[in-house]
Amino acid sequence: MSKPQILDGKAVAASVLDECRTEAAELVKNGITPGLAVVLVGEDPASQVYVGSKVRACGELGFHSKKIELPAETTQDELLKVVLELNADPSVHGILVQSPPPPHIDEEAIVRAIDSRKDVDGFHPENVAKLALEDPTGFVPCTPAGCMKLLEVSGIDTSGKEAVVIGRSMIVGKPMALLLVSKKANATVTIAHSRTADLPGVCRRADIVVAAVGRPEMVKADWIKPGAVVIDVGINRVDDASKKRGYRLTGDVAYEEVAPLCSAITPVPGGVGPMTIAMLMRNTLQAAKQLG
Ligand code: GUN
């Protein structure tokens, strides 16, 4: 096989962020500074890294940002109060509560409490409905939006293709499937999950595989049809004593054995990860424009 096209999320994200910076400057001239509030409950180390990156991106683009770090013991009512205050804050156009919160928090109730016009994660039922309806005033969840953007700018045509999405989460799997089946993308989509019979066989049918399960290197070479496009959404920490920090990052795809079979593949890190943040900034701009 010839070498696969490596889908460079870092480079594509940089160009999306450049566009965002230019658009933000225009909005600022008109008296609107896009503002994002990021709420983190507890001390999950991976979440701390993600939240830090989101706040840093705001600074680099000239957005206003608020980072609200709450202790793991924060109650549902206390968190709800924070969300309601952010709903009422005119300097905040986007609100994001980092997932997953501690187990005593009812995450769905928190998401429903966020003003849907500020729900830049696209998790509120109103935005889920708008995605299904293909209504562009809704917010598309950032990770699947980033996957679609990466496919689009890489010149990968999804129309008429068989796509298999592994994972049925509301953050990635389900919205990804809706985007692929939309009138813009026109793929034929299967959503596979932990109870799917013969998962390797289902995957082997796919022209496009999107792996979003959170299991390190689960997708093996014999799951892949030669020439397929593979999008790896996984960012898994795997213990590695040879690394200074004690772990390495790996995707849901066994990259070394899968890559030689593919026509295109995303690396981990540097594939989908940077796209998620870029699309969050896009969504925040959209919120600022729509709210004014
Ligand atoms: N945790 C992992 N991905 C996401 C995301 O896109 N948004 C939020 N809020 N939490 C996450």
Q: What's the quick description here?
A:
By secondary structure, this protein is α/β, with parallel strands linked by helices. It has helices at residues 9-29, 45-61, 76-88, 107-113, 125-133, 142-153, 173-181, 199-204, 255-258, 272-291; strands at 5-6, 35-41, 64-70, 94-97, 162-166, 188-192, 208-211, 229-232, 236-239, 247-250, 264-265.
Describe what this molecule looks like in 3D.
The chain has 292 residues and is of the alpha/beta class. It is built from ten helices and eleven strands. The strands form three sheets. A six-stranded parallel β-sheet has the order 1-11-8-7-5-6. A three-stranded parallel β-sheet has the order 3-2-4, with helices on both faces. β5 (162-166), α7 (173-181) and β6 form a beta-alpha-beta unit. The chain is globular. The structure holds guanine. The site of guanine has 9 residues, from β4 and α6.
What does the secondary structure layout of this molecule look like, with pairings?
Blueprint: E1 5-6, H1 9-29, E2 35-41, H2 45-61, E3 64-70, H3 76-88, E4 94-97, H4 107-113, H5 125-133, H6 142-153, E5 162-166, H7 173-181, E6 188-192, H8 199-204, E7 208-211, E8 229-232, E9 236-239, E10 247-250, H9 255-258, E11 264-265, H10 272-291
Parallel strand pairs: 1-11, 2-3, 2-4, 5-6, 5-7, 7-8, 8-11
Antiparallel strand pairs: 9-10
